[in-house]
Design a protein that fits this description.
With 157 residues, the chain is mainly α. Helices cover 74% and strands 8% of the residues. It is built from 8 helices and 3 strands, in the order ααβαααββααα. Strands 1-3-2 form a 3-stranded antiparallel β-sheet. A hairpin with a 2-residue loop joins strand 2 and strand 3. Helix 5 runs parallel beside helix 8. The protein starts with a helix and ends with a helix. The mean pLDDT is 88.
Length: 157
């Protein structure tokens, strides 16, 4: 239990309210709803969390190439996926089908950044390895790109 307590108390205090907020957004996305389109256009900003985390790795150019490639793949997936989520659009409002992909993506971004911080503190050798950078950048690119693709589909709808 001592390890769990250190794990929970070793993180900055702001991390836990952020997690609660992301879970709230994810749960809201799991229900059918009508919402304004404007907030959807800000979804790609969540990808900035991933971009910032990859930038903090002091990475080689190949890591940025991988991030860009997986961002494109994620955007393609997000664009295609969003077509199955949108039930209708009227003016500045959009009706969306409930889905769990948003929760998954939010949790991946949160935990990816959290795990990166843990490895940086606990195992700097792994954190600075090329393999870690490549895996981290690939996951970050996929998730960040998915938010961009989803917003792009709504914009075009």
């Amino acid at each position: 239990m001592d390890g769990i307590a250190r794990f929970a108390t070793g993180a900055p205090l702001w991390v836990w309210p952020l997690l609660v907020g992301l879970v709230f957004v994810g749960l809201k996305a799991s229900k059918d709803r009508t919402t304004l389109t404007l907030p959807i256009y800000f979804l790609p900003l969540l990808g900035l969390l991933s971009l910032n985390a990859v930038n903090g790795l002091s990475v080689e150019p190949k890591v940025w190439v991988l991030f860009a490639a997986t961002y494109w793949i994620g955007a393609t997936f997000g664009f295609r996926f969003q077509s199955s989520v949108v039930l209708g659009r009227s003016g500045k409002s959009i009706t969306l089908k409930g889905e769990w992909v948003t929760m998954l993506a939010l949790m991946v971004i949160f935990w990816l950044n959290f795990v990166g911080g843990v490895f940086k503190a606990v195992s700097p050798d792994i954190y600075t390895s090329s393999g870690f950078h490549l895996v981290f950048a690939a996951i970050a690119g996929l998730v960040a790109g998915s938010f961009f693709g989803r917003a792009l589909w709504v914009f075009r709808a």
